[in-house]
Design brief:
Helices cover about 45% and strands about 15% of the residues. The protein has about 425 residues and is α/β, with parallel strands linked by helices. This is Peptidase S49 domain-containing protein.
Length: about 425
């Protein structure tokens, strides 16, 4: 076996759809045939430094970051690989790349939602469930939709299940919720070739499962236990992500489901072409969320009521002041503008500005008062007001002490008359 990517799967548990083995191997061969294929393999472990390259770098083509209409499109295509930091067309996608693109999208204010575009027969167990847990934990931060275009099988379905919603193209499918490994017994071929392998080892189980000998039952049982344990993790992960019972997930029996079958089994939510599904996602992102009254806490409700009450009281006070000022102007105008105020200007002003008399009472009092025909008559009237026999109309205090200017004094001041 000369392909180092394919060698990763030899004798290892895998999350793959066995029926797509030819495509699986072809994808890995295609990557290693690329000019930069071997370099990608060497760079995987050092991907944390300068992960997002400059546009002119060859790496930029294999670490895409595509945002359209506020949606980041993350490819989950081809064979899915642990500790691999590139997305190579439809051939392979690394878990490291998916995680880094997803994290960048969460932090990017221009990204309103994240779309996982899936077309994969599956991939490695290593790294898959850790990645899926991170995606699931981010739910609620930004909407996440997955699109099986065309297939999301095994490791790819594990990733898709972390989304809020899964779409499947009409000719696509999902499923293969299972784990597989293999053992090759080449002992018969070696014997026919006249070859015999002898192991020199220490430790009872050091050479268990080697391909030059038949597989003992006890070793097979331990291998099965390992696969069963990984299957339990896979089942519980899908059940959690999809809100399903584990029993229902196990009842899929690792089958692959068409679009309609996937919806009936609870493994998908909608059927549609990728363009239509992405358009629906964009429309969903632009729709304001409905307000849930149950989400309003009692404290927030009380604070809102108190604020509304304070605003109402303030508005009431301002309205009262405005209404009072308007009424006072109306009263003053009615007194000073009345027919009875003519030739009784000083008394009309007194009623308007120095008393709280209503306009009707003031006008009635003016009608009974003599008109001031000449200046001399007005001064005589004021003189009479100064007579000590007249009552003091000021604000009186105890024992006749004045607490303020009398009406007589205010009249003198208003008309410029000095005391004799």
């Amino acid at each position: 076996m000369t392909n180092p990517l394919l060698a990763r799967f030899a004798g290892e548990a895998a999350l793959v759809e066995p029926g797509r083995r030819d495509r699986f191997e072809a994808c890995l061969d295609a990557v290693m045939a690329l000019d930069h294929g071997p370099e990608m393999l060497r760079e995987a472990a050092a991907a944390e430094d300068g992960f997002w390259p400059e546009p002119g770098s060859w790496k930029a083509a294999y670490r895409p970051y595509v945002v359209a209409d506020g949606i980041l499109q993350v490819p989950v295509k081809g064979v899915l690989l642990h500790d691999f930091s590139f997305a190579v067309s439809s051939f392979v996608t690394g878990y490291t790349y998916i995680q880094r693109a997803f994290e960048r999208g969460l932090a990017d204010p221009n990204v309103k939602g994240i779309a996982l575009i899936c077309d994969s027969p599956g991939g490695e167990v290593a790294g898959n469930f850790d990645l899926v847990d991170r995606l699931h934990k981010a739910r609620g931060t930004k909407p996440i939709w997955a699109f099986a275009h065309e297939g999301a099988y095994s490791a790819a379905y594990s990733i898709a299940s972390a989304a809020d919603r899964i779409w499947v193209s009409r000719t696509g499918g999902v499923g293969s919720i299972g784990v597989v490994t293999s053992h090759m017994d080449a002992s018969g071929a070696l014997e026919r070739a006249g070859l015999k392998i002898t192991f020199i080892f220490a430790g009872e189980h050091k050479v268990d499962g080697n391909s030059t000998q038949p597989l003992p039952d006890a070793v097979k049982e331990r291998m099965q236990a390992r696969i069963d344990g990984l299957y339990d993790v896979f089942v519980s992960t899908v059940a959690r992500n999809r809100g399903m019972k584990e029993k229902a997930v196990r009842e899929t029996k690792a089958l692959c489901f068409s679009a309609d079958e996937a919806i009936a089994a609870g493994l998908a939510d909608a059927v549609g072409a990728l363009d239509d599904a992405v358009a629906a996602f964009a429309a969903d992102l632009s729709t304001p969320p409905e307000q849930d009254e149950n989400m309003i806490t009692a404290e927030a409700h009380e604070a809102a009521v108190a604020a509304a009450r304070a605003d109402g009281e303030k508005a009431g006070r301002e309205a009262g002041r405005a209404e009072g000022a308007t009424a006072e102007r109306t009263r003053t105008k009615a007194i000073l503008g009345s027919e009875e105020a003519k030739d009784r200007g000083a008394l009309a002003e007194h009623f308007a500005f120095d008393t709280g008399m209503s306009a009707e009472d003031a006008v009635a009092a003016l009608a009974k008062a003599p008109k001031a025909a000449a200046e001399g008559q007005r001064n005589d009237f004021l003189a009479a007001m100064r007579d000590e026999k007249n009552p003091d109309l000021g604000t009186g205090g105890a024992h006749g002490e004045h607490q303020g200017p009398s009406l007589t004094d205010r009249m003198r001041a208003r008309h410029g008359v000095t005391a004799a």
